[in-house]
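Saturday, quiet lab. Running sequence design on the structure tokens for the scaffold JK sent over.
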């Protein structure tokens, strides 16, 4: 008589890991580049991000909010964003309630989350930005944070930056915005050599993206200065060749330092070339970027009247048909006038931005 084997026990189901917490963030960007920054977040974070519009009242241009469920390290890789803050709303009548047990524990949890995304010694100081920051309440809050975190109070902007303000949507209560990085994301670690008038790296990265970068591109940066465009182009992805030219030996030396700090010495070429007479074949370049002299720190309007047409003509010669050329200048009327008469460049976009008290324009041109 055959005995029946006992049935095998059903496999134990592994418990599902808890869904990551959805948190709210605020991104600060250069005014005029909000759309491209939102696009970068959406592309790199895919479905984990939900974008929101800020109420217009009381909001400076160059900011937007989003909800995100995921690790902070992914946010640290955003390159068109000036800074990102984690936002927590506190349903409290006044800031002194932040010292209450529940609110203070929530604040410390957020601080611990931000610090965990960085090396142990990344944060040494903190700073609280708030209306009435010299009141007794804020002094008590700073003392409590110093004791709880082991960080020293900074008298200028600290590594750990907190902003305390009223909610922008008019709700009763207070918000604490906590920057997720020790320095603004616009402060690049590769910039070991700086030159007066060097372009903001987030603007440079946005302009690189405007040229639709592809792995087989030959990319040319006319008047490369300290190498901002070159580094940001390589950070955006590989290219067949990345070329930078300038006639200023100090600028080329500075660019070499920055390329070395970024690890791109072997993949970017620097040349002492006059951008009006490039030793390149016709139609040999796939994408171009340039930070043209404004006539403020470099050059003059009189110089630009003759320089700009020569640069556009030579750039058109070396560009293949369809090539995109992103350039930034404060000489708006001059550029608009030249483009209105051009038979080789077609304007694709013109974007005004706010940068260091100036309002230059980014022009995106396509070779006809």
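Result came back. Writing it out in full:
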């Amino acid at each position: 008589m055959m005995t029946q084997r006992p049935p095998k026990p059903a496999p134990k189901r592994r418990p599902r890991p808890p869904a990551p917490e959805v948190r709210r963030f605020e991104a600060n960007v250069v005014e005029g580049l909000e759309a491209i920054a939102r696009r970068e977040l959406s592309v790199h974070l895919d479905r984990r991000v939900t974008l929101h519009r800020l109420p217009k009242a009381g909001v400076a241009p160059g900011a937007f909010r989003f909800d995100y469920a995921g690790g902070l390290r992914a946010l640290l890789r955003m390159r068109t964003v000036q800074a990102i803050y984690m936002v927590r709303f506190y349903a409290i009548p006044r800031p002194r309630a932040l010292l209450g047990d529940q609110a203070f524990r929530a604040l410390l949890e957020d601080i611990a989350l931000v610090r965990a995304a960085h090396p142990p010694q990344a944060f040494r100081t903190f700073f609280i930005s708030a209306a009435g920051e010299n009141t007794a309440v804020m002094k008590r809050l700073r003392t409590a944070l110093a004791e709880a975190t082991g960080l020293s109070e900074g008298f200028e902007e600290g590594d750990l930056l907190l902003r305390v303000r009223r909610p922008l949507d008019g709700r009763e209560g207070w918000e604490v915005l906590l920057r997720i990085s020790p320095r603004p994301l616009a402060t690049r670690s590769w910039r070991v050599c700086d030159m007066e008038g060097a372009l903001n790296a987030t603007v440079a990265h946005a302009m690189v993206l405007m040229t639709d970068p592809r792995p087989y591109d030959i990319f040319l940066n006319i008047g490369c200065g300290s190498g901002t465009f070159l580094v940001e182009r390589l950070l955006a992805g590989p290219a067949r060749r990345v070329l930078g030219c300038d006639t200023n030996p100090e600028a080329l030396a500075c660019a070499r330092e920055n390329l070395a700090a970024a690890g791109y010495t072997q993949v970017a070429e620097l040349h002492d070339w006059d951008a009006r007479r490039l030793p390149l074949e016709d139609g040999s370049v796939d994408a171009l970027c340039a930070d043209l002299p404004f006539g403020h720190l470099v050059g003059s309007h009189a110089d630009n009247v003759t320089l700009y047409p020569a640069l556009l003509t030579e750039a058109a010669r070396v560009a293949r048909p369809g090539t995109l050329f992103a350039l930034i200048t404060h000489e708006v009327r001059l550029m608009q006038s030249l483009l209105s008469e051009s038979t080789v460049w077609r304007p694709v976009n013109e974007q005004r931005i706010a940068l260091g008290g100036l309002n230059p324009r980014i022009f995106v041109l396509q070779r006809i």
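Notes for JK: The first strand starts at residue 23 and ends at 28. Residues 26 and 56 are 14 Å apart (CA to CA). Ask whether to fix the surface positions before the next round.
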